[in-house]
Amino acid sequence: MFKVAKMIYFNYGHRLLGGHDKPHSPSKDLKVNGTSPNSNQFPQGGNWGNPDYPNGKENESQDSAGNLQFEEERGQHKCSHLHGHSARVEIEMASPKLNPKGMVVDFFDIKQTIGEWIEENLDHKMILWGKDPLAKLLKKAGEPVVLVKENPTAEMLARWIFREARRMKLPVSKVTLWENQDSCAVFKA
Question: Is the distance from CB of 179 to CB of 87 less than 8 angstroms?
Answer without folding.
Answer: yes
